[in-house]
Amino acid sequence: MRELFLIVVVVVVPLFFLLVFVISIYNRLVALRNRFKNAFSQIDVQLKRRYDLIPNLVETAKGYLQHERNTLEAVISARNAASAASDRAAQTPGDPNAMKQLAGAEAALTGTLGRFFALAEAYPDLKANQTMSRLMEELTSTENKVAFARQSYNDSVMAYNTARESFPTNLIAGPFNFAPAQLFEIDKPEQKEAPKVSFS
Predict the structure, then answer these.
(1) pTM to 2 decimals?
(2) Which tens digits make up the pLDDT trace of 50-81?
(3) C-alpha triplet 175, 178, 183: angle, nearest 5°
(4) CA atoms 115, 121, 125, 126: torsion sign
(5) CATH code that applies to domain 18-191
(6) pLDDT at residue 196 in the model
(7) Cβ pair 98, 114 in contact under 8 A
(8) Spans of the chain, pLDDT less than 70
(9) What's the CA gap between 9 and 19, in Å, rounded?
(10) Are 198 and 127 in contact (CB under 8 A)?
(11) Between the CA of residue 130 and those of 13, 45, 57, 136, 200, what are the distances in Å?
């Protein structure tokens, strides 16, 4: 009987504590992964709002910018590409390829919007249009919300990646396929900020 008790104490108790330790690390990684996925969903909500505003802007400007068809088409094309990239990234938040495609598409959209806004500045009647002003205010507000949501997402990804790379968590992360998550960064510094718009 005493031998059985010793076996339990020497073998079973340490295995129990090891199992509890592994489960707690696994659960922490799951919580961190879910946190960055939730943070991405906040970005996704704001990006969809942005994508919904852009066709309204273009439609409002069409009457004024009749000779600028290429610019209007470029904005819609960039918007559609960014929307498709956002949908792919929403399916697998943190996936390096999806996040890089989204960052590239967002940079391209920001660039075409910048050209659109610069062009709109040359049309005083368009600048005075109340619908255009309201849409521009909504877009600027949405751009700010995207920036805040992106920061929250990047903070969550950083916490997750740090945890999965730290010892002893890295011993659990690999076998259970906790892949690294990609930050949402826009590479070109001039495109990190929302387009500057002034209709005054």
Answers:
(1) 0.80
(2) 999 999 888 888 877 777 888 889 999 999 99
(3) 150
(4) positive
(5) 1.20.1440.20
(6) 54
(7) no
(8) 187-200
(9) 15
(10) no
(11) 73, 26, 12, 10, 12
Model pLDDT, residue 13? 79
pLDDT of residue 7: 76
- Two tokens, residue 116: 């659109």
Q: How far apart are CA 129 and CA 137, in angstroms?
A: 13
pLDDT at residue 195 in the model: 52
